[in-house]
Amino acid sequence: MRQPSRRPPLRLQTRPPGDEERPDAGEEAGAGAEVDARLPGVVRLQCVQDVPRFDMPLLLGSFRSSTCNAVAVSYGGQSYLLAPAAAVIYGGQVRVSLPGRDKPFPAKVAHLGLECELAALQVESPEFWEALVPYELALDGLPHLQQPCSVVSYAEAQPRPRSLLGTVVRTEIVTYPSAMQRLLGMTVGVGLSRDQLGSAVVDAQGLCLGIVFGRTLGGKASGARKQGGRTGAGAGGDGSGERWGMGRRRVGRRRGRRGGVEASAAVVPVPVVTHFLEDISKHGRYLGFPTLGITWRRTESHALRAYAGMRPGQTGILIASINPTAPLAAVAQPLDVLAAVGGAAVDNDGTVEFRGGREKINIAYHISQFQVGDSVELTLLRQGEPRTVRLELGVPGRLLPVHLGGRPPSYLVLSGLVLTGLSGPFLEGAFGRAWPVRSPVQLLREWQNNPSAADEQVVVVAECQDLGPTSATDGYERRAVMHQRVVRCNGAPVRSLAHLAALVGEAQARADALGSGSGSGSGGGRQGGKGRKAAPAPAADAATTTIPASAAGGASDGADGNGDGNVNGSGAAGAAEAAGANGQPSIGNGPPLDERQLLLELSNRMLLVLPLQQAGEDTKAMLAEYEVEHPVSADLRPAYEAALQGGQAGAGAAGALAAGGKGAKGSRGGAKGRTG
């Protein structure tokens, strides 16, 4: 059989005769014309990520290495280097490489926008920017469907970027995975590998249409069966898993390694990119995409429209609930109808006009076009009566944040307990990527709940360790304490982790003041009590038992499953009513708590009574075991240290007077005991 002839590589091919005298393109254009030898605005990026342990902040994180692309764009007279946010978050070492340069250029993350999957990098070297031609953004509008485009990127082991032909498949509202934010997205039909994320999508004129941030599967590649060491007939070689013709003749099927090439690419379109860059240029930092902070329902039902009082010809969506931290909460209420936003009428299905009225799109797209802090005019219908309000857009808070914005997790160490804030990364670290299914219900329900204040945070127990038979946490079952929400501390509702750190600091300061000046007084009191044959005073070592809230008077009435209840009241009023006659906190009708103890109430109606003196020694042992310097994270130290200093200054004189009074009473009681 005759073997087909193969052409030698381009670098080994000889030039045809007479080609040496052929003029170059620059000579044909004229002697004065110069050819731009700079590279296109796509570079290769390598990052080493130091991802912390969100489920156990005291442990060291793990290192991950990622390789992708970055795109240099020009906007507002400035040049920016944009990369996928998921590839550079928690990046300890970020380097960008150019072809022909042996040494990479160091970079750092200047702005991180997880809501739009973009990150702006800062490169200080002037040589880097002189060797690139940044892309101009296509500001004239979105590409139409089936419009051809090109994806410029570096693939694996490629010395220079290459261009791949693609087609715009979809332009719609999508959910960006890092922050679960619904923004405008674009899908391009092109096969890309994992190393080609961050590529630039350009049109025929060379203008940038968007930046690739993810890959979309064309089918279920994970369900493919391998037969004889190869991919089975039920999965395409491109990883799409598509059955071509369902057993008929397969035409155009590409065979290869499963998962090597994907069917399409998810792209951040130009409107989202310009919003990100405009936010940076206007405010100097990234603030996010504004939302109204509401949950709404369609009004396509005639019965629902009649219930809301809508008149014939009126359109809009029904407001089901409003986030209390949203600016709209001050001017609207549930069962109002949102009829227009910024002059754009809202249909009954929650869509507004798109592409000049030729198409419809979700209302989330229209709201995301504004910047944080912009003033917008809304039209509300209340029982059919229209009213116009103007408010300043913002980003409402959430009880269960999906991300931490690139910040390390906060923590508070108390004896064998490690307390942290509830977040999506915490649940993923504790229960895996299937945390929406495997997490406890009392934590998942916070996804639907709204905070009552901007600084409200859910505090959970990340770790509970028994440090020995004499430790403060001895006797508590670990699985009963782990991953429970901390509802109250000494009878006061816990608003956030910083608030809990301040409460713990104040309690420790009072305990230290009492312990340093009440030795003789407390001893006399015990002696007098023994002489009177009365019940002994509550000792610090006798409090290491689990007390059910149902046996503590009214404690079980205030603590429900999600920890929203209060002790004999709500908020500070409940904490004030829970205090005894001597000002010490108590649980229901029970005895007042000793100030040398700390009481934590969990969401499962469990009480943790911790002797503060022993808890301090256990905390030092925990810090030494994990080689951590401070019991609280760096962001909580100012509040914690201020509480320690304030508690010591306030409890110094009061503690001395209380110690003297107790000592005198103890002496008199002791005399009576001896006389009797």
TrEMBL record:
Which molecular-function annotation in GO is an example for this chain?
A: serine-type endopeptidase activity
Q: Bias regions of kind Low complexity — which residues?
A: 534-559, 573-583
Q: Where is this region: Disordered?
A: 1-33, 219-258, 512-594, 651-676
Positions of the Protease Do-like PDZ domain = 401-635
One Gene Ontology BP term is:
proteolysis
Bias (Basic residues): 246-258
Q: Which UniProt keywords apply?
A: Hydrolase, Protease, Serine protease
- In what ranges is there compositional bias, type Gly residues? 229-244, 516-528, 560-572
Keyword Hydrolase attached: yes
Q: Which InterPro entries match?
A: DEGP_PDZ (IPR041517), DEGP_PDZ_sf (IPR046449), PDZ_sf (IPR036034), Peptidase_S1_PA (IPR009003)
Matching Pfam families = PDZ_3
Record-given protein name: Protease Do-like PDZ domain-containing protein
